[in-house]
Structures are given as structure tokens and as C-alpha cells.
Design brief:
Layout: E1 12-16, H1 29-41, E2 45-48, H2 56-61, H3 63-75, E3 79-84, H4 95-99, H5 102-110, E4 114-117, H6 122-131, E5 136-137, H7 141-145, H8 154-161
Parallel strand pairs: 1-2, 1-3, 3-4, 4-5
Length: about 170
């Protein structure tokens, strides 16, 4: 199995919406603000992938766009980690766009990146397992980093900090 390195200060992390597009809806704007601030507190730079904020209807209708975001994150050497926005119910629709893509498969193996998320993201974890990449069934952007409170929930904080060098 390929184990990606831990995140370190200054790293760029991609935010991807591989399932639900709710991150792009107005009702999640506060989650974005909170999540961005928390990532910056860890000295990480959040990068919202091109389709990640296009909303529920667009992303539901465009699994290829969701897959393209994940592929772009892996092909971008400046990105060290990938955080899923949230789960959903149809991530399986991305698989043909990824598992039949030699560039994507090669990139996952040559430039492994930390990948975290849960719920529907299980499909992605299984896909990466098939490619030999160790991933983390753990914190996602909306529910954990963007948790609406003065601080992250203690168990989420512990889990996220386990991804960081020096914690």
C-alpha cells in the first residue's frame, strides 16, 4: 500500500465535492468561512476545485465534472491533500471517469496525496484501495472543519490533527 505523507505547514489542500454539491449553496456559506479559517489556523491553504462550489443541481447532473476535480487535484503537484466537502448518494457515478483514466491512475500512484472524507465517499476509498493508496475515512469539510461552533468537536480535531506533521 502507498501511504501519503502527512500535511505540513504551508501545504495546499484541495476541497472537492464528489457527492452532494451542497457546499456551493448559499446555506453553506458560513461553513465555508469557518472551514477556511480553521484550515488557515493549521497553516494550510484551501483550494476549492473548479466545480466544487457549483451547487447541488449542477453536480448531480455532472458526475464527470466531479471526477475532473479529483483528477485535477491529483495532477496538481502543488496540492498535498484532498478533503471531501461532504458525502451524498451517488459517488459511484464517478468511477468510469476515473478508473478508466490512465493519467488519473498513474497520478495516484506516482504522486500520492492524503485523502479524507466519509459517508458516500466510501466508494472513493474503495477505488483508492484498488489503486493501492491508503486513505482516511475521517473528517470532511462541511461537517468537521466547517462545524458551526467556536471550535471543532474534540474527536474531529484529534482525527484531523493526526493528518498533520508534528501533531
Amino acid at each position: 500500500m502507498i501511504i501519503p505523507r502527512k500535511l505540513k505547514k504551508g501545504d495546499r489542500v484541495a476541497i472537492v465535492s464528489l457527492s452532494s454539491g451542497m457546499l456551493g449553496e448559499d446555506f453553506c456559506s458560513h461553513n465555508i468561512e469557518i472551514g477556511v479559517n480553521r484550515l488557515k489556523e493549521y497553516c494550510l491553504e484551501p483550494i476549492f476545485m473548479p466545480n466544487s462550489l457549483k451547487g447541488i443541481e449542477f453536480l448531480k447532473a455532472n458526475p464527470k465534472a466531479r471526477a475532473e476535480d479529483l483528477k485535477k487535484a491529483f495532477l496538481d503537484d502543488s496540492i498535498a491533500g484532498i478533503i471531501c466537502a461532504i458525502g451524498g448518494d451517488d459517488t459511484y457515478r464517478l468511477l468510469p471517469y476515473l478508473m478508466d483514466d490512465i493519467d488519473f491512475i498513474s497520478s495516484v500512484k506516482k504522486t500520492p496525496k492524503l485523502f479524507t472524507g466519509f459517508s458516500d465517499t466510501t466508494i472513493n476509498h474503495l477505488m483508492f484501495y484498488q489503486l493501492g493508496l491508503t486513505t482516511y475515512y475521517g473528517p470532511n469539510f462541511i461537517c468537521d472543519l466547517g462545524e458551526i461552533d467556536n471550535q471543532m468537536l474534540p474527536y474531529s480535531k484529534i482525527a484531523f490533527e493526526s493528518y498533520l506533521e508534528g501533531h
